[in-house]
Amino acid sequence: MKILSAEQTRAADQATIQAANIRSDQLMERAATAFSEWLINHLSQNAASEVHLFCGPGNNGGDGLAVARQLHLSGYAVHVWLLPAATHSPDFIINRQRLPTAVPCVELVSKKFPTLAPRSIIVDALFGTGLSRPLEGLAAEVVQHLNSSETAVFAIDLPSGLFADAPQPPDSPVVRAQHTVGFELPKLAYLLPQNAQLVGTWEVLPIGLNKEFIHNAPVENYFVDTNFLVGRLPKRPKFAHKGTFGHALLLAGSFGKIGAAVLAARACLHGGVGLLTVRTPAVGYIILQTAVPEAMALTDPASDFITELPDLKSYAAVGIGPGLGQDPATVEVLRQLLQQAHEASLPLILDADALNLLGTHRELLDQLPPNTLLTPHPKEFERLTERAHNDYHRLELLRAFCRRHTCYCVLKGAYTALGTPEGLLYFNSTGNPGMGTGGSGDVLTGLLLALRADQRLSPLDAALLGIFAHGHAGDLAAQQTGEAGLIASDIVRFIGPALAGLER
């Protein structure tokens, strides 16, 4: 699904109002109803003595007033606290007039804020996507008061003070919500680590925004869920054979790190590759033949490091990096691989030590063949580019890097971001904290290698399917092991089931 900017979100509202021939307050009622029903369902599982709604003077405050009315009619003890302002939005005024007189509605006064019982609930409806500058004055005081309470905060659309798609100045006041409920489409702010303690858990509720507007809206950011990918993985033909799905070459492992090669190899095989050859140093031969009998072992003349590049003619894709080490001879292998793959238009996947070698020898970046796929974590990406000022800056570095080198780059983490040569970003929806364990990245490399060896898939589809299935496999594994008990081998076991739901 698309991730709209704050400006596009407001335009989507207007397009919906015009296309559906409704008033803006009726669209607001849709959003308030969706939020109220969601909150009532949550409150039924978490007893609350009362609900306090803090409302600003704009449309976010209008949402809050409509929610207050609906909660009151549903039998909840509701208190409304208003931020004083010289002017209010028309829809705020309408919903203020609709609020039953039985609902206490009080203007906030500096230093005289309400006492909030720990078992009560706060609904933050002070400011939403229309905010363009940091909060100050009384609004900032209210935010500080909410953050100092021990009460659970539910934010409508965005925690007040948080910008939808840009960083706010350091130390600017922002509500720390335990839950954020948005509408129709996620906001970019939901997906970035620096906002995690502000957004809390989040959910997006449908309110019937105009589909034609959303379809035609030009965006640079996408959120990848099952609906986005289902049907992109070609179904296997009845008369297919091992040659149908490509022959992949994996260059991986060094003394003490053959396990990385094993994990990547197993993932590649479970990812559906037809044939797999693994190039390791000689020390890895017995380990590989024993642990991964389905793969062919092609050992290097050297004992501890890969020092020679094999003939590439028979391969559909090459992966390099897991456990590779950074021996000087291996640098030359990488250099030769980039040159020969460029000449042969051979798909490449670069991970781990291959990325560290690129970071140390940055002149090699200019030799990356078009559509090369790189899979760095944030620290490895920093070695390839520069230190980011914040998460938003890191995303711009990712766009620029992919455009400059005509490559795909998987920036790993929660909501892993895939950058494309066109400068688009795709944020992944699957995965869990249990996957933050050694070897998880090696599994991803092997899976991506299998998908890139399948010539029926475009580079974009292979990358999207790989990161989504990798995270989904981790989610399936965690259901059995728990997050703390999850190891990389568990992810491998669930690659097949994770891919199964994405076939055409």
TrEMBL record:
Q: Where is the YjeF N-terminal domain?
A: 9-215
**Can you tell me which residues bind (6S)-NADPHX?**
59-63, 128-134, 157, 260, 323, 377, 442
User: What positions does the entry give for K(+) binding?
Assistant: 60, 124, 160
User: Reaction catalysed?
Assistant: (6S)-NADPHX + ADP = AMP + phosphate + NADPH + H(+); (6S)-NADHX + ADP = AMP + phosphate + NADH + H(+); (6R)-NADPHX = (6S)-NADPHX; (6R)-NADHX = (6S)-NADHX
Superkingdom is Bacteria
Gene3D superfamilies linked: 3.40.1190.20, YjeF N-terminal domain
YjeF C-terminal domain sequence ranges:
225-502
Q: Which cofactor does it need?
A: Mg(2+); K(+)
Binding of AMP: at which residues?
Answer: 412-416, 441
Look up keyword Lyase and say if it applies.
yes
Q: Sorted alphabetically, which Pfam families does this protein's record hold?
A: Carb_kinase, YjeF_N
Q: How is the cofactor bound?
A: Binds 1 potassium ion per subunit.
Query: Which InterPro entries would you find in this protein's record?
Result: Carbohydrate_kinase_pred_CS, CARKD, Nnr, Ribokinase-like, YjeF_N_dom, YjeF_N_dom_sf
Keyword annotations for this protein, in alphabetical order, are:
ATP-binding, Isomerase, Lyase, Metal-binding, Multifunctional enzyme, NAD, NADP, Nucleotide-binding, Potassium
Q: Does the keyword Transit peptide apply?
A: no
Its Enzyme Commission number? 4.2.1.136, 5.1.99.6
Relate the protein's function as given in its record. Answer: Catalyzes the dehydration of the S-form of NAD(P)HX at the expense of ADP, which is converted to AMP. Together with NAD(P)HX epimerase, which catalyzes the epimerization of the S- and R-forms, the enzyme allows the repair of both epimers of NAD(P)HX, a damaged form of NAD(P)H that is a result of enzymatic or heat-dependent hydration. Bifunctional enzyme that catalyzes the epimerization of the S- and R-forms of NAD(P)HX and the dehydration of the S-form of NAD(P)HX at the expense of ADP, which is converted to AMP. This allows the repair of both epimers of NAD(P)HX, a damaged form of NAD(P)H that is a result of enzymatic or heat-dependent hydration.
Listed under subunit, the entry gives: Homotetramer.
The similarity annotation says: Belongs to the NnrD/CARKD family.
User: Per its record, how is this protein called by name?
Assistant: Bifunctional NAD(P)H-hydrate repair enzyme
